[in-house]
Automatic annotation (TrEMBL):
PROSITE patterns: JMJC. It comes from Stenotrophomonas panacihumi. InterPro entries: Cupin_8, JmjC_dom. PANTHER family: HYPOXIA-INDUCIBLE FACTOR 1 ALPHA INHIBITOR-RELATED (PTHR12461), HYPOXIA-INDUCIBLE FACTOR 1-ALPHA INHIBITOR (PTHR12461:SF105). This is Cupin.
Amino acid sequence: MPVATKVREVHGLDPRALPEEVLTSTEPLLLRGLAKDWPLVRAGLESPRAAIDYLRRFARRDAQVAVLVAPPQVEGRYFYNDALSGFNFHTERPPLGAMLDAMERHLDDARPPSLYMGSTTVDTYLPGLRDENDLDLSAHDPLFSVWVGNRTRIAAHQDVPDNIACVAVGHRRFTVFPPDQLRNLYIGPLDLTPAGQPVSLVDFAAPDHARFSRFAEALAHAQVAELGPGDAIFIPSLWWHHVEGLDPFNVLLNYWWRRTPAYMDSPMNALMLALMSVRDLPDEQRAAWQEIFRHYVFEPDADTAGHIPEDARRTLAPMTPEVARELRARLLQRLNR
C-alpha cells in the first residue's frame, strides 16, 4: 500500500519533561527513541523470551485478562465475519501468566494462532512495571495501558482521547488519517464493533478499490510511521489510525488522556442520540435542527445567550460540574420514560 507522506519525526525529547507543544499538537508526531532507556525495551532487544521473562516479574499470574484468539488464516486481522453479524475471532479470559506462556509457546511457529491482549491497565495487572518504564505525564493523569500480541492488523479507527503509544518490543506500523477522511474510510457499524470503536471496512493489505472507490482519496491524505523498540507516536484526538504489529511478539504501552473536564461525556453519546432522534426527521425539520445545533453547539458566540441575564443562562452559560450533573439527571429521566 503506497503512502508517500511520513509522520513528522521529533528527536531528542526528554521523557521526563515532554513539551506542551508535543502534547497539544494537532498533527501526529513520531517521537523517535522516546522510550529507548526502558528496561523492557532493553529486554526485548535481547530476545522476545527475555521480554516475556521481564513481564513475568510483574504479572499477576492469576489475574484474568481478555485475549482475542483467531485461527492462523486470519493473519492477525481481527475483523468481522463475512456477514458483519459477528467476528472472525473469539475472546478468552485466561490468567495473565497463561497468556504469556502461550505467547512464548508459539514464538517459533510458522503459522501461529493469532493472540492479542488489547488495552489492559498496567497498574492493575502488572503492578510495579510502571516504576521502571514510564513517561512523566502526571499533570495529565493519563490512563496507562499495555497491549501484547503476535502479528496483528488492527483496522483503522479513532479514539476520543489524545494518545502517546510507545513500542516496547517488536515493530509496528501506524497509518494515520485526519478526522475529515471519515467518508473515504468506509466505516462499519457504530454499535457492533470488534473492540469498542467503529472501524474501517477496508482491508489495507488488499484494498478493494472497486467496492471502496473513495479509499484512494483517503490514501492521498495518509501519513505512515514505522516504529521500532523505544519509539513512540503521538496521535491527536479523533485521528484515524490503522495499526500493524509486525513481529512474532509485540508489546506496546500507551497513555490516553483528554484535554476536557472529567464531567464531559463522550460525544459519541450525543451522536447516538442524534441518530435516534434527529436523522430520520422530515427534511424541513432536520434542516431546522441543523440550524439549532449550529447556533448552540458548533458556532456559539457572545450573541447566542447575550440577551439572557447571566444568572439565568443555566445550560447556555459555560458548563460547570454542577450544571452537568443536573443536565445528566434530566436526560436520564427523559430517556427512561
